[in-house]
């Protein structure tokens, strides 16, 4: 059964007519052509598909489009303010915290969600918060450094 | 057939459809200075070994100085996250004296680049780099000659800075590369060998440089194969067998056909549901009713090593020096051990993915692959097309590690595109990725060795089965030694129940685990500190240098193992590079969990072009090495792969990652490989550290908690 679903996507009001059971991951990637959100496992194990829903990091492969009705969805494409990168994006680039880059959008979105919840995380908090995002290239320690730096930057910016 | 202009526009740079031969395509590229070159004789050997059926003997890459002074290098190699493009651009900028920003690497597109067998074996910097430098030197000579003529002076009086040639005596007499190249069309062929003797003269190389593609990757703009979009494209979901070797008996697609908007395609064993919505394609595919006849393969995790031992192929003796029996007579202690290594997956975060489009004449395939040219050949052969009618364009690659040398998904996409005339996306699921992965082969090493009273290794009888000989060198100075290699390594037709293949530093992790564990066992028995024992038995200065460097970095406290402190050491050599590792671990004796607290690595790789990139590769190696050492193994039963996703296949996570300290020993010698060496020691260094803390010796990877507990019982 198709339904009309309205939500906010990267700051814009959008509306789709789709079966409510469709996965947000695929709706983003095909319907909206927002391909920055990646498929890695399809079953919630890897975090490559992470987006923000009402500011909270969420796995879009385990979320249906019906569930986001009335909510605010942000993907990696909606994070920068025009040319200005989000501090977490900037920190990833500054720390060379990526190799192949396939896990990167999910890592960044998860980190932003983490910092929304815990603006002043300890290293341990960051490890715990990032634990279920997988990276096969092994950029982990640089990712942790980047998130720490971004947290500081965001604190000082305020 | 849909030949919409739209789609042609998407295939940017679509070449005219007349037959384009290798040398001819360059004609299409316009003016400038071209230097063709061939990367290395060793590369040629590798290719012959890889059984590639065509190999250009004239060149496999070229440089172009554009009419605007910019520089491009066209190569069939690809960038898979290791930063090869950054390192190569640095080399080129340095040799030609142009700004790094004005150098572009054009990689992997089979229409734009000359043939290349693929990107693996840490060959890019090691083999390709020096040849490219030689070509750049040739280009520089041409430019200086042109400048001398224009400025009316001698070449000897000229110098270059940032793409401007000037007269050393009178710096106002100058001319830019752009002015020199404008309106020119000069072609040269570079001599094969690099003439570079002194790497220390370079200004850009040797200094850390961050990767060039970060901005695209942190904004989600970087396009991987699955991100390609063409009008009218369909997602394919394919019928898959329940196990390797299963034969399709029958398939009923009637129910699937009822799914609205679906197109079912069948061509022999290829049965696919196509739909513009990937979830609908999947729904339809799940409605296929198929009967398979499964093959009987009498092997599983339970009897794997017996099975492999029973089927051992004929051995080839690689090295036979001195006289083993004499060595054994002189030995005062003899050690006989068998080491095991299970199947390990590549599991890049991006599964194999390809998009293909056939316009009625030419096939274009966007594929995440380490081997665009072999993919082109295979697709052409399988579809009965001319190779020049198949273009493979590699977008960004989401990790390879050897696994994307295989390109089955590109062949599937191309077949379906040809059958339907529509753009087809084949994006494997994680389960398909595990099923079709060419695993690192399970392997066995048997070593019989001995030492004398002074702690000198006096004989070494080494047998490696199924892993191949990479990294099997003895490294130590042993008077009586023999090395026998059973099977080719990587693959062993008819033995493994599924496909196996090259996995980051193929064979070397297995061989180094066995050698360095055996050496540690001997050191412990001799009652000699493991670093001292190694130094005592080493003559190879490069090995000594890295070992001494890492011992100093870790502030190694000599002692007899097991010391209870949890420190291990191991050395290795791969792709022309030497590495030495020290690790500190903490073993939980109740649970058998091993936490690696810190890893120190010293690496000597000749002249290191980009220390930043090389350091990141070392970190990545430490990281990935934790997985195969401690947790990763494929569960299977005959041809059935029971491992399907990351719930059971545990790859390294944030909480596992140790503190790392890395050091690169710069050496004024040709650059060597950097993407793989630092992974090869990880098994042994962790195993040796476990022993040092607990006295428990593990001879089989992965050293899972269950196996650690078992080993602790034997202490
Ligand atoms: S794709 Fe969603 S968690 Fe892996
Ligand atoms: S950078 Fe490749 S998976 Fe993380």
TrEMBL record, chain A:
Domain named 2Fe-2S ferredoxin-type: which ranges? 3-79
Q: Which InterPro entries match?
A: 2Fe-2S-bd, 2Fe-2S-bd_dom_sf, 2Fe-2S_ferredoxin-like_sf, 2Fe-2S_ferredoxin-type, 2Fe2S_fd_BS, Beta-grasp_dom_sf, Diverse_Oxidoreductases
| SUPFAM superfamilies, per the entry | 2Fe-2S ferredoxin-like, CO dehydrogenase ISP C-domain like
Q: Which Pfam families match?
A: Fer2 (PF00111), Fer2_2 (PF01799)
| One GO MF term | oxidoreductase activity
The alphabetical list of record keywords is: 2Fe-2S, Iron, Iron-sulfur, Metal-binding, Oxidoreductase
Has UniProt tagged this entry with the keyword Metal-binding? yes
Highest taxon listed in the record's lineage: Bacteria
The identity of this protein, by name, is Aerobic-type carbon monoxide dehydrogenase, small subunit, CoxS/CutS family
- Species for this entry: Draconibacterium orientale
TrEMBL record, chain B:
Q: Where are the transmembrane segments?
A: 25-47
One annotated GO molecular function: oxidoreductase activity
Q: Which Pfam families match?
A: MoCoBD_1, MoCoBD_2
Q: What is this protein called?
A: Isoquinoline 1-oxidoreductase
The record's listing under Gene3D superfamilies reads: Aldehyde oxidase/xanthine dehydrogenase, a/b hammerhead, Aldehyde oxidase/xanthine dehydrogenase, molybdopterin binding domain
Q: Which SUPFAM superfamilies match?
A: Molybdenum cofactor-binding domain
The protein's UniProt keywords, in alphabetical order, are:
Membrane, Transmembrane, Transmembrane helix
Q: Aldehyde oxidase/xanthine dehydrogenase a/b hammerhead domain spans which residues?
A: 219-296
Q: Which domain of life is it from?
A: Bacteria
From the UniProt annotation, give the residues forming the signal peptide. Answer: none
Quote the PANTHER family the UniProt record gives: ALDEHYDE DEHYDROGENASE, BLL3820 PROTEIN
